[in-house]
Design a protein that fits this description.
Helix content: 40-55%
Distance between the termini: 15 Å
Number of helices: 11
Oligomer: single chain
Radius of gyration: 21 Å
Largest sheet: 8 strands, mixed
Order of helices and strands: HEEEEHEHHHEEEHHHHHEEHEE
Mean pLDDT: 95
Structural class: alpha+beta
C-alpha cells in the first residue's frame, strides 16, 4: 500500500506544481495508551505511534514563498517565510506553516546558520481528522523532518518535535504539550514511548501486543473535536490555578498524599481537575511497571480507571465515548478508555484478536440502537516514527 501512496503523491505533486518532488517524508499519527492532560502539567504520558501516516512530497523553491496543497482540500495556501503569523484563514495549513515558523525559531536560538528557502508541499494522509489520533502532529512532523533535511539544519528528533509544539501553540493557537509530536517522531514497532514531559526524557517500552495476540481497536465516534475550542483551554487554566494555589510549579509536583490538602484549599471543580492529573500520572507509572512485570493483559483496570477519571473528574468524555468503552469492555476487551483531548474523538480498546469481531459488531449495534452516528472502527499497531520514504 505504501508504494501506491508514494506513487500517487508524487504524481499529485507533479500535477499541482509542474515539477518533480525532491522527496517524500512521512510521520505517523499516535494513540495515547494512557496519560491524558498530564503533558502540559509536566507529567507522564505513554503514547505510541500508529500505522496510519501523513505523507508530504516537497521540493525547495528559489524564493521565500511556501505553498502547501493537499488531497483533502481544494485550496492551495501560500505565505512568505518571514511573514508567518497566526491567521485563522490559513485553516489546516496553519500546521505546516506553524512548524516551519517553529523550526526557524529553534535554529536561530541554537545559532544554526541556514539558508531557509521557500518550498512547495503536497500532503496526503490516512490519519483520521478529529478522532484524537493527532492528525495535526503527523502533518507537523512530516514537514519538520523534511525541512530539517532540505535546509540541512541538523536538528534532532526531540527538537523537531518541539518545533511542532511551538508552531501549534503560537501559530495555530492550541495550547498543547509536546506529547503528540514526540510520539510521532520517536515511535518504534510494537513499542510505546514513555515520556517524562518535564525533562523530555523518553524511554521505549515493549508493549508485546503482537506476541500476546492483542490489538488496539480504535472506535472513532465521528464526533469531531477542536483543541482550539474553549474546553481544552479551560482545563489547562484550571490545572495552572490549582498548582498556583497549592504552591507548586506544576501538578507534577503533587502526589495522592497531597489531595486531602488540595480538597481543603480548592473549589470543587478545580480540585477534581487536579485529582485527575495526580492520579493519572500514577496510572501511567503503574502501566509501565505492569508491562515490564506482567505484560499487557495486566493493564485493563488501569485503562478503565483512566476513563472514569476523565469522565467524572476532568469531564471531557461524551456519551458516545462512554458507550464505546462500556460495550467494548462488556464484549471482551481487556480494557478501554477515551483517548486524546476529549469532547469527541475516539476510544481505544485493548482487545484479543479473537474478540475483535464481537466487540466491533456489538459497538456498532449499540450506537445504532441509541441513534448515534455510525462509528468508524479499525485496529492499529505500534509503528515506526517519522522518516524519509524516498
Amino acid at each position: 500500500m505504501t508504494d501506491t501512496i508514494l506513487k500517487n503523491i508524487k504524481a499529485d505533486f507533479l500535477e499541482k506544481f509542474g515539477r518533480e518532488a525532491a522527496g517524500v517524508w512521512s510521520a505517523p499519527g499516535r494513540v495515547n495508551l494512557i496519560g491524558e492532560h498530564t503533558d502540559y502539567n509536566d507529567g507522564f504520558v505513554f503514547p505510541f505511534a500508529i500505522n496510519r501516516h501523513t505523507y508530504a512530497a516537497i521540493a525547495l523553491r528559489d524564493d521565500n514563498i511556501v505553498r502547501v496543497g493537499s488531497s483533502f482540500s481544494s485550496v492551495m495556501h501560500q505565505i512568505e517565510l518571514d511573514k508567518i503569523t497566526r491567521d485563522d484563514s490559513n485553516d489546516w495549513a496553519a500546521y505546516p506553516f506553524g512548524v516551519v515558523w517553529g523550526l526557524q525559531q529553534l535554529a536561530k536560538k541554537a545559532g544554526i546558520e541556514f539558508e531557509g528557502k521557500g518550498f512547495d508541499a503536497f500532503i496526503e494522509s490516512d490519519v483520521p481528522v478529529g478522532a484524537g489520533l493527532s492528525s495535526s502532529a503527523a502533518i507537523e512532523c512530516a514537514i519538520a523532518i523534511a525541512i530539517n533535511d532540505l535546509w540541512n539544519l541538523g536538528l534532532k528528533p526531540k527538537e523537531l518535535a518541539k518545533a511542532g509544539q511551538l508552531g501549534e501553540n503560537e501559530i495555530v493557537g492550541a495550547p498543547t504539550g509536546v506529547m503528540d509530536q514526540l510520539a510521532s517522531m520517536l515511535g518504534k514497532v510494537d513499542h510505546g514511548v514513555f515520556l517524562d514531559c518535564r525533562s523530555i526524557d523518553a524511554q521505549l517500552v515493549d508493549l508485546a501486543f503482537a506476541r500476546e495476540g492483542l490489538e488496539i481497536l480504535i472506535i472513532d465516534t465521528k464526533v469531531s473535536h477542536r483543541l482550539v475550542d474553549g474546553g481544552y483551554a479551560e482545563r489547562r487554566t484550571a490545572c495552572e490555578l490549582g498548582a498556583e494555589k497549592l504552591g507548586v510549579d506544576s501538578l507534577r509536583d503533587l502526589s495522592e498524599a497531597d489531595l486531602e490538602r488540595a480538597q481543603e484549599l480548592l473549589d470543587d471543580v478545580t480540585f477534581r481537575r487536579v485529582r485527575h492529573v495526580v492520579t493519572e500520572n500514577k496510572r501511567v507509572l503503574l502501566t509501565v511497571k505492569e508491562l515490564h512485570e506482567k505484560g499487557p493483559r495486566a493493564i485493563g483496570k488501569l485503562l478503565h480507571d483512566s476513563h472514569e477519571s476523565m469522565r467524572d473528574d476532568f469531564e471531557i468524555s461524551i456519551d458516545e465515548l462512554d458507550t464505546a468503552v462500556e460495550i467494548a469492555t462488556r464484549h471482551g476487551a481487556i480494557g478501554a478508555r477515551m483517548t486524546g483531548g476529549g469532547f469527541g474523538g475516539a476510544a481505544i480498546a485493548l482487545t484479543p484478536i479473537e474478540k475483535i469481531s464481537e466487540v466491533t459488531l456489538s459497538v456498532l449495534a449499540e450506537f445504532e440502537a441509541l441513534g448515534y452516528a455510525r462509528p468508524d472502527i479499525f485496529s492499529v499497531s505500534p509503528a515506526p516514527g517519522a522518516q524519509r520514504e524516498v
